[in-house]
Design goal:
Elements: H1 4-25, E1 37-39, E2 44-46, E3 49-51, E4 57-59, E5 63-67, H2 72-92, E6 112-117, E7 125-127, E8 130-134, H3 149-171, H4 193-204, H5 214-221, H6 249-260, H7 269-282, H8 285-293, H9 297-311
Parallel strand pairs: 5-6, 6-8
Antiparallel strand pairs: 1-4, 2-3, 4-5, 7-8
């Protein structure tokens, strides 16, 4: 049984490690205060669906962390990963403060809501404005990576960053949701599936092992169910069931890597940020993509494999 003194020790360790992380990895000035506290009485909603939780919620600067039955330690780890991922993504897009995105540390109704699913058996998902992941302490996760906790936590951290990138697209004003009225000012628009999943894979380091050589590309293409990844404009375009869509994620990530690498197209996260903001006006991913990437989606699709062949090395 966890004693009150143990809670204090856990929280102090959490704050200490967080401060060390911020000093090493963030160029943002420290805010005047940071807020970490346990709260209750707030529903967890996926759009309009209410998800049952234990009513022991961890509030941090940008997140509210919920669970059905995860331990306090797991909630702390989860929220620490989320805050770290959010800080790194903001830095990549040159977002100076969360307030620019409509999140205020003293207003919990603006915060990103995340859920650690121990027993409810939902699928991992992102939604406006938050995400749900299978819990680190869930029965199923205990057997992943042969029970190696260090590998599990590293993979989980990449998952958290992947889903946080999806949330960032909502925060840039793409799509809409009734809980977030300011998003309704723009039409419903979203990047194509290959791009949305690709940028989440690229910035997170990959929830699936990245493809790094042309030999790996050729091996991937040998599967008859693997088609041009840029042709996956919607998830339903993939000739595989949802349970196998992850097979495409390494190629989606490679597609984004080519766009951003100086030896590829040489674009930047700032170009992508400008594209996102432009999409609110054009309500068209393809129009804004061509404007800020300098090539059309149709061109990229038609020439993808030859561009990648020139970009990637052979086997190591």
């Amino acid at each position: 049984m966890t004693t009150p003194r143990s809670y204090i020790i856990i929280i102090l360790l959490f704050i200490s490690s967080w401060c060390i992380h911020c000093d090493k990895n963030s160029t943002e000035p420290e805010p005047e205060r940071k807020q970490y506290q346990w709260i209750s009485g707030i529903p967890f909603l996926i759009e309009n669906e209410k998800i049952k939780h234990d009513d022991h919620i961890l509030e941090t600067d940008n997140f509210l962390t919920f669970s059905d039955a995860s331990s306090d330690e797991i909630k702390i780890i989860y929220s620490q990963m989320a805050e770290g991922a959010f800080a790194e993504i903001k830095q990549a897009f040159e977002i100076q403060s969360s307030e620019e995105l409509g999140i205020f540390s003293d207003n919990r109704s603006t915060k990103i809501t995340i859920f650690s699913d121990r027993y409810l058996n939902h699928s991992n998902m992102a939604f406006p404005i938050g995400f749900l992941l299978i819990a680190l302490d869930s029965p199923s996760a205990s057997s992943w990576f042969g029970g190696d906790q260090s590998q599990l936590r590293a993979w989980y951290q990449r998952n958290v960053k992947h889903e946080t990138m999806h949330v960032m697209q909502w925060l840039f004003g793409l799509d809409w949701n009734s809980r977030w009225p300011w998003l309704q000012r723009w039409g419903r628009t979203w990047p194509e599936f290959w791009f949305s999943e690709g940028i989440a894979e690229y910035i997170s380091g990959g929830t699936f092992s990245p493809i790094e050589t042309i030999d790996q590309v050729n091996a991937w293409c040998e599967n008859p169910q693997h088609i041009n990844p840029i042709s996956i404009h919607r998830s339903t375009d993939a000739p595989v069931p949802d349970s196998q869509i992850g097979e495409y994620y390494p190629m989606f990530g490679l597609a984004i890597r080519y766009l951003l690498d100086e030896n590829g197209l040489g674009k930047t996260f700032i170009d992508i940020k400008k594209m996102y903001l432009d999409m609110r006006k054009t309500v068209s991913f393809q129009v804004s993509f061509e404007k800020f990437m300098g090539i059309s989606v149709n061109y990229y699709e038609a020439h993808f494999f030859e561009l990648i062949a020139d970009f990637l090395p052979g086997s190591n």
